[in-house]
Structures are given as structure tokens and as C-alpha cells.
Amino acid sequence: MNQDWVEIFPEPLPVSRAIEFVRDSRAGGIDVFLGTTRAETAKDGRELIRLDYEAYPEMALKQMRDLAARARQRWPIVKLALLHRTGAVKLAEPSVLIAVSCPHRGDAFDACRLLIDALKSEVAIWKKEIWSAGPATWVHPDQSHSP
Length: 147
Description:
The protein is α+β, with helices and mostly antiparallel strands.
């Protein structure tokens, strides 16, 4: 049985299924991170209405699997799910889901944090902010303040 679920979805993320996937009797701690689209107002008064994500799937999936392997080298991960959306993601919807189960909660928290930070800075997935007026803006990973 595969202990890692790594996938890119063009539709809403299966949050309950991911949590169920990482459940295991050997795990005393499960950490789940959901990165959601946050309502924002630009300095010029425009409102954020959604985020659009694009990916280079073959490269992004390889990079995500490499991240999972890197996390497994550092912590005793029982199971993990590393899922990302593509396409339009409305306000309050999750664009990324990371779930990690470990024997102890501290390791699950630490692994989850490494995975989200590395995913945002290293994986071939790009985010565009769609505003109520004016042009859309691409977000550079180093300047990102949204999921």
C-alpha cells in the first residue's frame, strides 16, 4: 500500500478523504494544513475575487514526490497527503492540503511546515490573483502572502 498521496486536482480538494488516508493506528499525531484563498483589498480599493493556479504537472508532481521523500528522511512519517488545486479557487476554498501522520505530534507539525514552505517556494505551480477591476497579477513565490 502506498503511504504517500501526491496529486494535483483541477476540482475542489477531497479534504475528508485526505484525512482518512493518513489515519493509521501507528500514528499518535496527525497535522493537517489547508491553504485557503483569503479575501484581500488592494491599496487601490480593488477586491480579490479568486486565485487561479497553473502547473506544469509532470514537473510539479515529481517535485512534490521529492518533497515527500525529503520529509520522510527527516521524520518518522507514517503516511502523508500532499494535494494542490489548479484552476480557479474561490474565496475561502482550499488550494493546498497537506496532511501528515507520525507517531508523535511534534514530528507531524514539523514535517507539515517543511512541506508547505518548500512546496510554495520550489514546486512548478504558479498563482495569479484575480481582482474585481484592473489586471490580474501573477504572484512570485518569494513575495507570496496568500496560499
